[in-house]
Amino acid sequence: MTMPFYVSPEQLMKDRADFARKGIARGRSVVVLQYDDGILFATENPSRALHKISEIYDRIAFAAVGKYNEFENLRVAGVRYADLRGYSYDRADVTARGLANAYAQTLGTVFTTESKPLEVELVVAEVGATPDADQVYRLSYDGSVADERGHVVMGGQAEQLGKRLGDGWREGLTLAEALALATTTLGAVGTDGQLLAEGAERDIDGAQLEVAVLDRARPRRAFRRLQGAALAAVREVEA
Amino acid sequence: MSDAGRLGDAFLRPGSSSFLDFLKDHAPELLPGRVDAAGGAALAPHATTIVALTFEGGVVMAGDRRATAGTMIASREIEKVFPADDYSAIGISGAAGIGVDLAKLFQLELEHYEKIEGSLLSLDGKANRLATLLRANLPLAIQGFVVVPLFAGYDLDRGTGRIFSYDATGGRYEEHEHHGTGSGSIFARGALKKLWTPGMDEAQAVRVAVEALYDAADDDSATGGPDPVRRIWPVVATVTALGYQRVAEDELAAVVGALVTARTEGRRLA
């Protein structure tokens, strides 16, 4: 009888975490930040069809970085979860907290029981009636959940970008200010993936940006993509 | 769901973008059409007249506000016209409770597809999904809970309004110019036939829709007329390139006011 190699649980978990982290860090970042009339999501994404940001339910949106097929699967599961819950109870009973918990359980189970962890990081956000009632949850590959205030960066160079975003963020930003801050933050990473110095950020073309908002003022379905002329209009306000 | 809190396999399994298909696999007990309600049909309130007509650049759908259970008025302010999505409307006549559920499920079906696929279904695609939904309801329809919807929308590809009618088995028929369903529709359709003209604008079309419902209420006891005492007006919605819009109450009050004045001055007795 052959004996299996012994690997300590600590080592096993560490290896898995390193593996997942590496996968996530390869991709472009996603920025999520609150502004006075809602929550803004932005990322550099040349694809028109493969989204990293999408609508889950009336007031809830989803943003992800990492492996596309893995987070796409989680996104679809989230839409099914939300639609089923809203259909069997009421639309008001679908909350970001419930969804974040379901995602956390799913990510956690995969991390501990399956041979490969999911190489994804997610944000689930719900826009409330006031900025104080907004909820932003950040979920990691191992199922850990953080309740975020104000701003989040996920993906490559997340730590450094998060610090820069934090320096520029304040309460009550307008949409145009928030978008300008988000694009500067995204532009702080060069095309080669290296961090650029402050003030030397790349200017990202509108066609390369995927931007969406959860607009507090919209009745029922708050999610709205900003693209083409609508995106250009918001960007011009700041210029 | 077996393991608590976790998104079960059914949620994570790759599959179709239809919410209906998901329900069939995962929670069939929530589908309409699965219950045995023999003999209950007589107790169910019924919704009546819905009309739809096209105009230059869109389509109008309107429904009266009455639901009846036998000879009783079950509700004076039921709503039978709903937005199906941004560019279409659904009206229901027949068994009211099931019809409202069906409209709700249909809204969800379209929204679910839109979220999963990131694009809208074509108008024909939407009309076909409604036919599938009705077919799923067939067991209840056979027991007397017949729901006859009317579907109308703005076709973004063709740039026109289109109308679809259905039978209880899911048969789908495209209608031209105008159509009506429900017990008062015989009278409403007569009015539509006389009043509809090509190239009408939105305001004219709203007036014609209200007039058709007024005539239906005049001759069909199950259709409610406008109620100026309680200030209850029909639900009238337009669908154009700008999307689904419900006509405001005060606007309808003015349309009804003008209509009643015209008929009073015309000294019409029959």
Structure, explained:
The complex is a heterodimer of chains A (239) and B (270). Chain A is α+β, with helices and mostly antiparallel strands and 239 residues long. Chain A has a single domain, classed as Glutamine Phosphoribosylpyrophosphate, subunit 1, domain 1, CATH 3.60.20. Helices cover 38% and strands 23% of the residues of chain A. Chain A has helices at residues 9-25, 68-88, 96-113, 158-168, 175-187, 228-238, and strands at residues 30-35, 38-44, 53-57, 60-66, 120-126, 135-139, 145-148, 151-154, 209-215, 223-226. In chain A, the strands form 2 sheets. Chain A has a 5-stranded antiparallel sheet with strand order 8-1-2-9-10. In chain A, strands 3-4-5-6-7 form a 5-stranded antiparallel sheet. The longest helix of chain A has 21 residues, at 68-88. The radius of gyration of chain A is 18 Å and the shape is globular. The termini of chain A are far apart. The mean pLDDT of chain A is 92. Chain B has a single domain, classed as Glutamine Phosphoribosylpyrophosphate, subunit 1, domain 1. Helix content of chain B is 37%, strand content 25%. Chain B has helices spanning 9-12, 19-26, 96-117, 123-136, 138-142, 185-195, 202-219, 249-265; strands at 46-47, 50-55, 58-63, 67-69, 72-75, 81-85, 88-95, 147-155, 160-166, 172-175, 178-181, 235-240, 243-246. In chain B, the strands form 2 sheets. In chain B, strands 1, 4, 5, 6, 7, 8, 9 and 10 form an 8-stranded antiparallel sheet that branches. Chain B has a 5-stranded antiparallel sheet with strand order 11-2-3-12-13, covered by helices on one side. Chain B is globular and about 70 Å long. The N and C termini of chain B lie far apart (62 Å). Chains A and B meet through strand 3, helix 2 and helix 3 of A and helix 1, helix 2 and helix 3 of B.
